[in-house]
Amino acid sequence: MNLPSPGPFFDVLADHGTRTTVHLSRPLDLADDDRTAYDSEGLAALVAETAGRLAALGVGPGERVAVIKPNHWDYVLLACAAARIGALPALISDRLPPETLQVLLKRLDATALVTTAATLRAAHEAGTDLTACVRRTLTLDGPAPGAVPVADVRGHRPPPPRRTAEDAPLAIMHTSGTTGIPKLVVHSTTTLIHRIVAAEARRMPVVSSRRDDTVAQATSYAHGRGLAWTLSVLWLAPREVVILDSFDPRRAEPVLRAHPPTTLEAVPSAFVRWQPLASSPDNPFRNVRLYVNTFDAIHPPAVRTFLAASRRRRPLWVQVWGQSETGPLTFRCLTRKSVRATGERHPTTRDLGRPVPGKARLRVVDPQTLRPVPRGRPGLVLARTAALCAGYVGEPERLRAKLAGGWFATGDLGVRTRSGRLVLLDREVDTVPGGSCVEIEDVLHDRLPEVMEAVVLGQANGLPLPVLVTHGGRPLDSAAWHRAVADLPPLDEPVFLTADQLPLTATGKVRRQELRDRLLGGASPYGTGHWT
């Protein structure tokens, strides 16, 4: 498969006459107009024009360009524009705390920052000057102190696309940062395009995009999944692609109703927030044949709700587990039957399935000795894949510390079953003695419909602390709570928060370390944190 790299990608689509229409939930921050629909020619022109603006800003081949802005698909288009002139894009979510953004920018040592005046203002109000961390700053939404407004670089003729070496750095993306400062992950053309994107861009029965599909996506486009998904899906040329920039159901619903998807990929937190939409008789998911969730395991009630919402005879749910450093490692197909049982202590969505055939191998080892443990015994999950990243920016020793004889330590604890499936237990740093926080959270969601989010915080000295967000923000009935946890490991009394009190990453994951610091006074976790 002669899959082009991000730089010339949209030019190739336009030359091939790709007829996909891309619909946006709102206009791009990158664009000069209010368009919410593009064809391949329009996207190719926009990427080329943006490449010209970056060149006019003084960005040259091999230089790093940081992108920090509100979530939207133009993260991906900016990455393609930077790659087109041979620069190295680094995509960073604006949802990170300003002090974390400052740390990442210093590690990055970027030539330029592409951002918005609003993003700079928010950081400045928190005591952080992001422009001081780079040599030049470009704002997309108007003037700001220390920055060049986009109007000053319009109309610059784009240089011709540059070709970079297959193993040279192609793009930088960051990990979620649930346990601290995110890592900046470097991928090359070989690892990102040839190993990850190419595998998804092949036509496979059921799980690949079809030419008559309307494919919808809701994710954090600052993460590597946004770029990989864009390249693989558009290469398969579905009829329509729908881009959702927000997980807020009030903003997503009009777009989903205007363009009802036949396949839908979203982060777990988006599915959770959209459950009320899926429960309505005229829900916008009636024609979905394929759901995909990435980034994290998802709670069973959400899968159950969305599979029931489809009017297809046999809708399918594909759960993919992997990491920014590795790309997809396992997959599992879920059906209505496989999530039918409720309230039981069974793996359901914690059963992550088997390694991606021909792409990944897994091993479960003792965390202290790194020796393999027997099937059925918990241990640290190691992975071997040709898609492993090239390293971490500013932390060269960190990747070496996570490698053991060619195997990469994922930082997750799990169990390999006799049949070779992987059952997820916890992040090693988040584990609890003799149990699984992820299992407890799943069971709480299953048994307590009032719970919108359940987080269990393990600690070295003391019972695990359940932190609950309920629909409507009301505490649970005490009797219902004690019935729900009667057969679970001992837990502390729950703490109730509102949804806006829960610190989240750009993908909707809970920042557990921040929550631990706030509620447990920085109490040490039970796990070592050595593999994070």
TrEMBL record:
Q: Which UniProt keywords apply?
A: Ligase
Q: Which InterPro entries match?
A: AMP-bd_C_sf, AMP-binding_CS, AMP-dep_synth/lig_dom, ANL_N_sf, ATP-dep_AMP-bd_enzyme
Could you tell me which PANTHER family the record lists for this protein?
Answer: LONG-CHAIN-FATTY-ACID--COA LIGASE, NONRIBOSOMAL PEPTIDE SYNTHASE PES1 (EUROFUNG)-RELATED
Write the protein's name.
Acyl--CoA ligase
Gene3D superfamilies, alphabetized: 3.30.300.30, N-terminal domain of ligase-like (3.40.50.12780)
**Superkingdom, natural source:** Bacteria
Which PROSITE patterns does the UniProt record give? AMP_BINDING
User: Pfam families given for it?
Assistant: AMP-binding
